[in-house]
Amino acid sequence: MAHDNSNPGTNVTRRDALKLLATAAVAIPALGMAGNAAAVMAKTKGAELIYRPTDPDMLKPIVPWSMTLTQAELDDLAVLADIIIPADAQSPSAGSLGAQHFINEWVSAPYPQQKADLVLVRGGLVWLNAEAKKRFAKAFAKLGNDEQRQICDDIRYEPKAATNLKHGARFFAKVRDLTATAFYTTEAGMADIGFIGNKPMASFDGPSDEVLRQLKLKS
Amino acid sequence: MSGPSGQQEYDVIVVGSGAGGGMSALILSIAGLKVLMLEAGRHYDPVTETPMFNLPKDAPLRGASTPDKPFGFYDATIDGGWQVPGEPYTQASREPQQRFDWWRARMLGGRTNHWGRISLRNGEYDFKPYSRDGLGLDWPISYADLAPYYDKTEMLIGVYGETGHGLENTPDSPEGILQPAPKPRAYELLAKKSCDELKIPVIPAHLAILSQRQDHTRLPAKLFPNSALGQKVVADSMQSRAACFWATPCGRGCSIKANFQSTTVLIPPALATGNLSIITDAMVREVTLNKAGKADGVIYIDKHSRQEVKVKGRAVVVAASAAETARIFLNSRSPLFPDGIANSSGLVGKYLMDTVGAGVSGQIPALENLPPMNEDGSSGMHLYQPWWLYKEQKAGKLNFARGYHIEMSGGRGMPGAGAFGGLQSFTEGAYGAEFKQACRRYYGTFVHFAGRGEMIPNENSYAELDPTVVDQWGIPVLKFHWQWSDHERNQAAHMHKTFADIITGMGGKVTSTIEADGSKAIASGGSIIHEVGGTIMGADRKKSVLNQHCQAWDVPNLFVADGAPFASNADKNPTLTILALAWRTSDYIVEQFKQRNI
Fold first, then answer.
1. Minimum distance, in Å, between the CA of residue B126 and any CA atom of chain A
2. For residues B191 and B507, what is the distance between their CA atoms, to the nearest angstrom?
3. At what angle do helices A9-31 and A99-107 cross, to 10 degrees?
4. Chain A window 118-137: which residues touch B at a Cβ cutoff of 8 Å?
5. Contacts B370 to A, Cβ<8 Å
6. Residue B495 Cα distances to B137, B389, B514, angstroms
7. Can you tell me the distance from the alpha carbon of A67 to that of A171, in angstroms, rounded to the nearest whole number?
8. CA distance A155 to A82
9. Nearest CA of chain B to the CA of A137: how many Å?
10. B184: which chain A residues are within 8 Å (Cβ-Cβ)?
């Protein structure tokens, strides 16, 4: 399976930052708020952008922080993402949709929760490879499917994991949660579960007779 | 929007641009008074700035909550949240049960840009709680005093709902005022069936969202029968609003103006009168007093120059949000009022209230594997449960004095950050093909019930100035004191038990911990963002800050138009009452100008 694992983070941020500057300069007269330009405009200090995270451009969002994970870490996360959400007849795999890049964006963010998750994910990846080498004398990504599943089965659910593997289960749960967020927020993921909203409609008609019958709310 | 215009004296200075400030500015400017509105945040235009259909995948962290954007990236709140950079507040206690979390939004329109749009009238009991059970405080007005203003407010802003239910202390709007309620969703009907068994009433919710376009030919003449200007600006405003197209979350704001926000419904027609000027990024510090003991203007800090600016007005309306209003009063010190303007009672900052909040989630197997359906609806609830145990309470069968209503949510919403994060306990950590199947099966099967209940004002919940801390504008900040009583804690425990019963009645599995100890069930003070009180109104000037017109007892040309005048905080969400009360207060101010009392 081919993945585009080039790390888009840093370059995109700089490019979007420049775009933001250009947008802000144009947007102010349009708002008719020349007197409040400083409040609307992203401030600059030399060529460096000072991003105001409490007042981001919600119509043209950017990720204003740079990415932390290494290429090797991204490769391992792509393998894990495909194990957690593999391709099937209905939709592609999470790794092929770039779940690993979202995880990178997440753990690179400058907030307390995400900083804690960075430690959990990075430490977990080191542990996972060490565990793979201990059991099968190879890095996790080089293992066969059955070998990978043997490890994942042992860490799939913290309450049932062996005491010495509970930290591994916590790592796996975090990667699973982040992979699910990455996957189910894409168009392919939303279609997979049958989300058909976020479309303007002339009326809201409520549930169909078929649904009402299935719920025994109508005979 | 115009800037400060030198030495001009305005008729009225309005501090704040949210529900209370926006309504005051509209009514006063329609009456021909020259009004200056001051807003501490930046200008904000929902028509051009709202990310209506934008997807979580295009936002940082897929739109997740962060300390910078606590309700998610696309939440309308700008420069706000539980903390505002450079504008701290402090807590008197380190105890979690004694903290008050203060949500602020520094933007034109304030918190009306992101609020839940739930618009419930206070009932007759809610204005006279002390007379009824001996607890808390009575308002100096009754339901009958405010009812005409509820009628007018609902017509002006547009509220969907249904009338004719005749439920105790749950007023029906007169015929012809409410917009049609949207049809219930599947999970709401399933919850209703369970509630029917439990004898909990379930009726259409009232939300400030247009389910159809407003009748711009009929309503303006009913609202402003004696003002051609009022009819014109409001008719134009109504024509500019579209009906809800049943998509996109209201919390982002609404570029088609289908829901109510001050910035789409109140401020544009007020500006159209030609009588309103607005200065944004103007952080008000204090109301100033002349030698005759009357308010003569306001001093604000211009956030760009960081210099103080004085503006003059013949009357001042403060609507900065309940606690911020109290803060401005307390900071307005003079030889006449060394403890803050209009504070001869010593009650400025006192009787701060929030809403009692507690919630329970559940998973409903009956909702599994349903065919795909669009359940976006109005984005808020279509049905709700008003408080129903009045008779049991009166008979002494409950261990708390006041009621709560139930707000439910669920359904097949758009997946965002955290999607399917709670699934591992249902699947014992499924991954792979098994996980994908589980997501298909469990999508849309989770429901949440949130209780919103009345808090009784008490002596231990208040705000005062912290003598040791100022914000980045050099203004002394608030220190919060907070204490729940057993009435609130027991009510929260009752919520938990009730919601578990509803979920069980739906054949569902409760996924939250049900707490018999209310102190573990109750949300922290302030966290429901229904902050009211602080300059309460009353019939006795020794026991209140404001009279029945929300006019300061001590300073006759000083008024309050936000939630600060509330003498009680009924379970009904406060915004509709803030709007109606601000309109009533504004009518009184206009009358005082006509009679040359101001």
1. 34
2. 10
3. 70
4. none
5. 211, 214-215
6. 24, 12, 9
7. 20
8. 16
9. 24
10. 206
Q: Which of B589, B9, B570 is nearest to B319 (CA)?
A: B589
Residues of A in contact with B57 (CB under 8 A): 185-186
- The tokens for B590 are 């206009």
pLDDT tens, A17-27? 333 333 333 33
Q: Which amino acid is it at A94? A: A
CB contacts of A195 in chain B (<8 Å) are: 372, 412-415, 443
Task: Identify whether the C-beta of residue B298 lies closer than 8 Å to the C-beta of residue B13.
Answer: yes
Strands (E), chain A: 43-45, 48-50
pLDDT class of B35 with cuts at 50, 70, 90:
very high
Token match 């209703």: residue? B192
Check residue B531 and give its pLDDT.
97
What pairing do the DSSP bridges indicate for beta strands B532-534 and B350-353? antiparallel
A29-38, A134-143, B576-585: the lowest-pLDDT one: A29-38
Could you report how far apart the first and last alpha carbons of chain A are, in Å?
A: 49
- CB neighbour burial string for B152-166, b if at least 16 within 10 angstroms, e if fewer: bbbbbbbbbbbbeee
CB-nearest partner of B247 from A158, A189, A197: A197
> Residue B442 — left, alpha, or beta (φ > 0 → left; ψ -120 to 50 → alpha)?
alpha
User: pTM of the prediction?
Assistant: 0.93
> In B365-453, which residue ranges form alpha helices assigned H by DSSP?
390-394, 424-427, 433-442
Beta strand segments in B72-161, E:
80-81, 90-91, 104-105, 160-161
- Give B349: exposed, middle or buried? Use CB within 10 Å, 0-12, 13-18, 19+: buried
What gap in Å lies between CA B304 and CA B306, rounded to an integer? Answer: 6
Residues B549-596 pLDDT 10s: 999 999 999 999 999 999 999 999 999 999 999 999 999 999 999 999
Alpha carbon B571 to its chain centroid, in Å, reads 12
Which helix (H) or strand (E) element contains residue A166?
helix A166-184
Q: In chain B, positions 151-210, which contact chain A (CB-CB < 8 Å)? A: 182-186, 189-190, 193
- Spatial distance between the Cα atoms of B542 and A81, rounded to a whole number of angstroms: 67
Q: Does A33 lie at the interface with B, CB-CB under 8 angstroms?
A: yes
A 10 A CB-CB count for B82 gives 14
CB-count exposure of residue B240 (10 Å: 0-12, 13-18, 19+): middle
Across B73-96, average pLDDT: 96
The pair phi, psi for residue A7, each rounded to 5°, is -85, 110
CB B530 within 8 A of CB B542: no
Instruction: Name the region of A19 (left: φ>0; alpha: ψ -120 to 50; beta: rest).
Output: alpha
CA A54 to chain centre: 21
CA dist B90 → B66, B420, B438, B463 (Å): 21, 37, 45, 10
Residues 378-397 of B with CB under 8 A from A: 378
B430: Cβ–Cβ under 8 A, 6 or more apart, which residues?
Answer: A156, B423, B424, B437, B438
**For residues B101-113, average pLDDT:** 98
Determine the 3-state secondary structure of B304 from DSSP: coil
Task: Flag whether pLDDT at A35 surpasses 80.
Answer: no
Pair B75, B59: CB distance under 8 Å? no
Alpha carbon distance B313, B15 (integer Å): 11
| Separation CA B187–CA B412 (nearest Å) | 10
Spatial neighbors of A202 by CB under 8 A, at least 6 apart, are: B245
Helix (DSSP H) and strand (DSSP E) numbers for chain B: 16, 22
B554 φ/ψ angles, rounded to the nearest 5 degrees: -85, -25
